[in-house]
Structure formats: structure tokens, C-alpha cells
Amino acid sequence: MTSASRRRRGFRIVEALDREWCELVRDEDEAVARWGDRHEALAPYRSLDDVLSGARLNSDAVLAALLTEVSAGDQLAGRVVLQALIGRMVCMAQRDPRASVDDYLARLWCVIGSYPLKRRPVRIAANLSMDTLKAISQEHRWLGRGDVTLWPSESLEELLEPTGLDGSPYDLSPPVDVEVQQVLEASSMLRLIGDSDASLLRSIYADGMSSTQAAGQFHTSASMVRVRCSKVVRQLAAHAVELADAAA
After folding, report:
1. What DSSP character marks residue 71?
2. Residue 34: which of 25, 43, 26 has the closest Cα?
3. What is the mean pLDDT of residues 42-53?
4. What is the pLDDT, as a whole number, of residue 76?
5. Please, are residues 169 and 241 in contact by the beta-carbon 8 Å criterion?
6. Which of 90, 239, 61 is nearest to 163 (CA)?
7. pTM exceeding 0.85
8. How confident is the model over 233-240, as a mean pLDDT?
9. Which of the pair, 170 or 57, is modelled with greater confidence?
10. Residue 184 to residue 243: CA distance in whole angstroms
11. What's the distance, CA 49 to chain centroid?
């Protein structure tokens, strides 16, 4: 099966999931009422569409309640979480020449079922997205299709503005821990920048080189290093929603 045919099949799956969602919305009001009785965050909602909207406006609280239901075996709750993240999976798959939407959705379903809610109760949507991306990346490595390099550092926290499901800013208290290794991993996986630019960012933000030291390594001038870094950071910032999801 060619890459193009795999992608077409993936989008057919998205359409099928959307059709299924419409059917679920018509039939599952009782489940929503049951969840509302057990979770304060879900109490205001009367339909699955209401819950889905709530996942955009009150992301962590709603997703945490749904994942609690998932841990008790409620697959419908997991289906709501999946529906909330379909758009993100489509966006990630469109930038990945090696995996289809189908691959991302299948892996996301597994991630939803095993999400460690007690250990990671905040930035849930971003964590689910990142875990899915990491799982897809691992599958590529196992298949011998190339590695994603991780660089240990705690810089570049200001590269991205964390965002919620609807693109609005997250509450930044407590601070978001976005590491260079995560940002560069996501940038490479999503093919937002080339290998040369990724190496330059690594030298400055991960390895701690000065612009002069980096200039010697990359056979250019210190001023050009600063210009290139500024340009690449702006380029990544233009994709802040995708990278915040993938890197947090």
C-alpha cells in the first residue's frame, strides 16, 4: 500500500469516526448523566457534545474525569477523549511521511487506555499527544526507518506558549516543563525544520555553546548564528499549538 493510499484510508477512518460520533451523541445521554453524578467537572453537561465542548474549555478537569472512567473500563469515556484529540492527530500525521492518521489514532487509543492519571494530572491533552508521538517514533526505530535523537537539557522553555485544546493559553501555574530534547524531537518528527537547523539549535540551547563557538563548528559567523537561531525559533513558534501538544 502506497503512502498516499494509506493517508486516504486514514481520512476515511476520521470520517467514519465522525459518523459514529453523531450516532453516539443521539444515544448516550444516560452515560453523560451517570458521569455527571460521579464527577463534579462533568455535572453541567447533558450530552456528549457538551462534554466535548467542556474538554476544550476546561481541559484537564474534564479529561481527568473521563480518564478516571476509562480506568474503570468505560470505553465510551475513552471514545470522548479520542474525539477531542482527532484534530491534533490529523495535524501530526499530515507532517509525518512515515505514518498515517490511522496509525496515530490507533496508537492514541492505546495511550488513552494506559494514561497514568495520578502521576500526570495536568496538561493531559498535551501529554497524550506527546505519548502518541513518542510511541509512533519508537515504532519507526524498531522498523529501522531512522532514529529520533534526544538531547538532555532544560532550556527553550520560552520557545512555545502552552495552549489548550482550543488554542487558548494554559494556566502557567505551576510552570510548564518543556525541555529542548522534547521540542527538538517533536520538531524533527513533524519535519518543521531541517537537520542543519536542528543541530544549530542543539549546539546553542542544549549544549550551551556561545554564538562564537557555534560559528566555528558550523563554519559561519557569530552574527549569522544569531540570525539563523532567531529565524528558526520564529519558525517553530508559528507552529506553537502543534509543538506545545507534542513537547509538553
Report:
1. H
2. 43
3. 96
4. 93
5. no
6. 239
7. no
8. 72
9. 57
10. 9
11. 22
